[in-house]
Amino acid sequence: MFKMTPQILRNLISGPATRAYPRQIRPPFPATRGRLVNDIAQCNFCGACAVKCPSVCIEVDRHLSRWSFAPHICVCCGVCVEICPRHCLRQEPATGPPAAQKEMVALDAKS
Amino acid sequence: MRTSVIPFGPQHPVLPEPLQLKLTVEDEVITEAVPALGYVHRGLEALAQNRDFHQMVQVTERVCGICSVLHAICYCQGLEDIMGITVPPRARYLRVIWGELLRLHSHLLWMGLFADSFGFESLFMQLWKIRERVLDIQEATTGNRVISGTIRVGGVSRDMDARQVHWIADQLTWVAHQVRQIEPVLREDFTIRRRTEGKGVLTSAQARELGAVGPVLRASGIAQDIRQTGYAAYGELDFEPVTATAGDCHARCMVRLGEIDQSIDLIHQALDRLPGGDIRSEVRGRPQGETLMRVEQPRGEVVYYIRADGGKTLSRVRIRTPTFANIPVLVKLLPGIFLSDVPVVVLSIDPCVSCLER
Ligand code: SF4
Ligand code: SF4
Q1: Taking a contact as any Cβ pair under 8 Å apart, which residues of chain A between 59 and 88 contact chain B?
Q2: Which residue of A has its CA nearest to B148?
Q3: Number of domains in chain B
Q4: What residue spans define the domains of chain A?
Q5: How do B20-26 and A36-38 pair as beta strands?
Q6: Which atom of ligand 2 lies closest to the CA of A55?
Q7: d(Cα B126, Cα A17) in Å, to the nearest integer?
Q8: Cβ-based neighbour number of residue B184 at 10 Å
Q9: What is the dihedral of CA B173, B178, B179, B185, to 10 degrees?
């Protein structure tokens, strides 16, 4: 009987188990795989990332020199980052902001 | 007496899984249970035909959110078997560490839901508070909270440094301490015992006959665990399958509780013995051949059949998930119990319907 009581008493004196978000935000771990960013100045539009991406969310147009990416389809697996020969892809440790509509990120070489 | 048919699910307050059971009841007692499946079929096996074999790793990880790493490990081991790739020892140990972290969080999740199934909300929250720390360890080491994305054909994609190894050991000590504090509640609490003991009893003969797997099988007294076959680095670590003899819902809970301790111990062992060296071998050429691979998941044994004809894509990937093997058990357990015990018995087999329907 009353096996939960000691736990309840411990919880009473140990303070809240949750954080007072948004006043208190847990910083992301450095290793967290969040939103994908491309340093487009380094990219040579080889298309390797587009071929290897398992969720097919990257499109590369060599003629227009355009790299486009659907962040809401990305599954944060990191395959593209590993494969990129120019090391211009990187995953930020935080996820992107919420959005009402699925956007498409398009980066051009000259912009 | 007149019988009536009560649909249980696919949306049910205690069962976060789209499983429907058509329960025929006489008064308050179940006389027949017919499962209706197919609400979340996603056709993941068919994706093997238009994703290459490296991309399929990410697809298999998504068969089940909770068993993600273990699905990927099973699939990659299958391909490594076909292609004759030797996985570096460090990668095998890292796979064990992530696989056991997954088992840890899956069992804590299940225990929380189990407590919720008989209305023990505070225990549910307490267990999920502990689970959150395990998810933090996963996020800090793999980069993702649940679906890790670190397993690759030929090894793993992320490494751990010495600082992280210490940190994980520290965090796990905290987890072990918290589990030890909550253990008497699960083991001896009056309400829990009244709601779970003697409910849904599966004898060892029935378990064998129906082909039960995982904790359901072990709670009926059969010490069988696919990890004993020594895949990944399990052959070099010391452990014994956790068993119980009663075969009821409480025994299944106790087996999983024992496996939490076992997982923590296995991770400590793996962290201590973590060898140095590479984490990934090179994969050359295309697979040709077929294989059958088995891995122990939190819910039991998963079986992958892979056939490759030397093309870029595989010609067949067939996945038999543990819940599939445990559904006949469930159909056998339900007749004869009270309607109010149905959630408890259904949850005691830890059904993962998304994984079952792939
Ligand atoms: S792999 Fe790298 S260099 Fe090639 S297109 Fe993608 S981002 Fe650009
Ligand atoms: S992280 Fe994975 S899913 Fe996202 S763009 Fe890169 S390869 Fe595609």
Answers
A1: 75-79, 82
A2: A77
A3: 1
A4: 31-95+102-111
A5: unpaired
A6: 3
A7: 9
A8: 13
A9: 160
CATH domain A31-95+102-111 topology:
Alpha-Beta Plaits (3.30.70)
What tens-digit pLDDT sequence spans chain A (111 residues)? 678 888 888 888 888 888 888 888 888 888 888 888 888 888 888 888 888 898 888 888 888 888 888 888 888 888 888 888 888 888 888 877 788 888 887 777 765
Residue of the nearest CA to atom 5 in ligand 2? A74
Residue range of the domain that includes B163: 3-356
Closest CA to B340 of B28, B123, B112, B115: B28
User: Does A7 sit within 8 Å of B181, measured CB to CB?
Assistant: yes
Q: Nearest CB to A76: which of B144, B157, B158?
A: B144
CATH number (domain holding residue B345)? 1.10.645.10
> Closest Cα of chain A to B262: distance in Å?
23
Nearest residue to B86 via CA among B287, B233, B295, B282: B282
* ipTM for the whole complex: 0.83
- CA dist., res. B47 & res. A55, Å (int): 11
Q: B3 is written with which tokens? A: 């019988």
* CA gap B100, B269 in Å, rounded: 11
**Span B235-281, pLDDT tens digits:** 888 888 888 888 888 888 889 999 999 999 999 998 888 888 888 88
A38 lines ligand 1 (CB under 6 A): yes
| B130: closest chain A residue by CA | A17
Q: Which atom of ligand 2 is nearest to the CA of A56?
A: 8
Burial classification of residue B230, based on how many CB atoms lie within 10 Å of its CB (0-12 exposed, 13-18 middle, 19 or more buried):
exposed
Decide if B59 and A54 are in contact by the 8 Å CB cutoff: yes
Radius of gyration of chain A (CA): 21
Candidates A29, A55, A81, A83, partner chain B, best to mutate (most B CBs within 10 A): A29
